[in-house]
Amino acid sequence: MEDKSGMERWKSALGNEGFGVNEALEQVLELWKGIPAQIRTEKFRLVPEKQREENAKRGAAALGRMRKHVKDFPQAMAAQKKWKEQGERTVLEAMEHDVIFQMGKLPAEVRKQFLEATKEYFRQTRRYDRELGMEELVQGLKNYFVYFMLALAAGEGEWFQRAIWSYSLLYPYTDNFLDGDYSPAQKKRFNDMLVRKLLGEEVQVQDELEKKVCGLIDVIEEVYPRKDFEDLYDFLMIIYDAQLGSLSQHEAKKLGEEELLRVSVYKGGASIYVDQCLINGCMDRRDIYFLTGFGFFLQLADDLQDVQEDLENGHQTYMTKLAENEKLAEAAGRLLGFAARLFADDWRGSGDVREFMFDNCVQLVCTAVLQKPRYYTKAFLEEIEQLAVLPAEFLKQMENEGNEMAGEWARESMDPMKMLDVWADCDM
């Protein structure tokens, strides 16, 4: 029997009597529509060309060392310990000089803690499900990086704890199932089961996927018992509701700009409410507006990065719609202005962390634009490159380098999962 009280409870979080999520969604949309498409360069730090070239030299050297290290992976177990130790030094050195994700701006101890937390994420995941591939692992890790930034901003929370690992891994399972080639009956059964589980009801799992998904929710409940942290479970229901709503992007029916924009703001905002809750189990209503805006930004930046792939696959997003109408440059410019306004007016943390997160946002947009130049004019690309920490040519080279490495691994029968297991001690 449906738990009406549970259903009513999470829906009330959307209204003003709860956390005011619906109001925040509307306010963020209003802010977005009021941001000019033109880039106001005085709001950003311009990067001198000489600095970009120096960054590119250091980046090329780091990429070369990383590629050589991967290629030198030894099959003999006796030599793998030395390879792992060398890899640790190589990664830490790359993080120290990183300019894209701004890790070099963080204290050395924080970088080391982040690296160890990342390795623990891989260890826990490989123990939980050896069938997940690298794409799914990276998909979950992207969410963990958002949690890391929010925990850094809050000045509290552990860099790694099992609840954030569990939540980060939930997304690849649920989103990929909903996007997958399953029958309507299979999807309905899975959705009904998961809703009951999220509402705290007893469920009977019928296959390995359901067992894995329910096991991850059980982990969250072990860390944050439902009776003490009810708000957290309301936000888990909200993100799942947003995931279900985003399925319209895969349907044959063409959606308009406004519809796609609303899907993006709800899914984007909802995706990081839980990240914030998992820092200490609680949510401060004062943070809802900023979190909604930040999540919306991340969703649009991700869609901007994937615009070419989404167009090829017939996947509708706000960015594919604008690309079809040759308005992608307007969206990229507005995205930069949106981030500048959000961090200037609604940030409640320290100035150092604000700079770290805002610079990350700027480089996300710059990288997405400069790696897909076909959608933009030469003048717009030159304008964006002034804000980028790396030259456009180098960013394109990075993308090609990744494709070449993947091809090399396939040709030489190299197993990236085996390397990951050695580097992160996943067999411990």
Q: Main attributes?
A:
428 residues, mainly alpha, Farnesyl Diphosphate Synthase, 71% helix, globular
Total helices: the number is 19
Per CATH, the architecture is Orthogonal Bundle
The low-pLDDT segments are: none
Cα-atom Rg, whole angstroms? 22 Å
Structural class category: mainly alpha
Enter the CATH topology name. Answer: Farnesyl Diphosphate Synthase
Protein model, in words:
This protein has a single domain, classed as Farnesyl Diphosphate Synthase (Orthogonal Bundle). It is 71% helix and 0% strand. It is mainly alpha-helical.
What order do the helices and strands come in, and which of them pair?
Layout: H1 4-12, H2 21-34, H3 49-71, H4 77-96, H5 108-128, H6 134-154, H7 162-179, H8 184-198, H9 208-223, H10 230-245, H11 257-280, H12 288-305, H13 307-313, H14 318-324, H15 328-345, H16 351-370, H17 378-385, H18 392-411, H19 416-423
Helix pairs in contact: 1-10, 2-12, 3-4, 5-6, 6-7, 6-11, 7-9, 8-9, 10-11, 11-12, 12-15, 12-16, 15-16
